Amino acid sequence: MKKFGVIASLLVPVSIMLSVTSVFLATQSESEASITPAVVQDSSLSIAKATSRQAPRDLYDQATKVNISPKEFRCLAQGIYFEARSEPYEGQVAVAYVIMNRVEDRRYPDSICGVVFQNEHMRNLCQFSFACDGRSDKPYEMTSWKVALQIAERVLTNAYSDITGRSTHYHATYVNPHWASQLRPTLKVGKHIFYREEL
Prior knowledge:
By secondary structure, the protein is mainly alpha-helical. It has one domain (14-46, 57-196): Cell wall hydrolase SleB, domain 1 (Arc Repressor Mutant, subunit A, Orthogonal Bundle). 37% of the residues lie in helices and 8% in strands. The protein contains six helices and three strands. A three-stranded antiparallel beta sheet has the order 1-3-2. The chain is globular.
């Protein structure tokens, strides 16, 4: 089992659990019919944001807290930042879980950096577009970067449950990739629709 294995029982804040009940009922029951794109639910999730006004701790300290290398921690935060910084908070959390779900899936690399930067040498053909678009991967909006670091830490410490229902894919609402019809939609939040593969 990979080191980021799913913990069987998570302590999830009641407010989160109540707000995503409908999503989990729709995505976790194997006996129910597959969700069609027409009925993908919009997320009404209201994840509590940090109340601290202080800047996030040093990257190294955050990585140490979650028992992961600073490089791996940074890769997760980069994925969140570059793929979803303009999305609602819960949309950024969802992107983080797509990354972690891929780490767990044997068909993808077994490290966070491996997943985030998979095929980075193939211009415009990588898994996450920012990794191979030829632009700098250094964050420049510090407020958004601090949020991404915070989300990375909370996801790695299981402070939130997987609101995507084990999704491994997503796309923007204004595109229609060929693979979408072959996967099961699980969640729509902001401008992203999330999907999981039924094995």
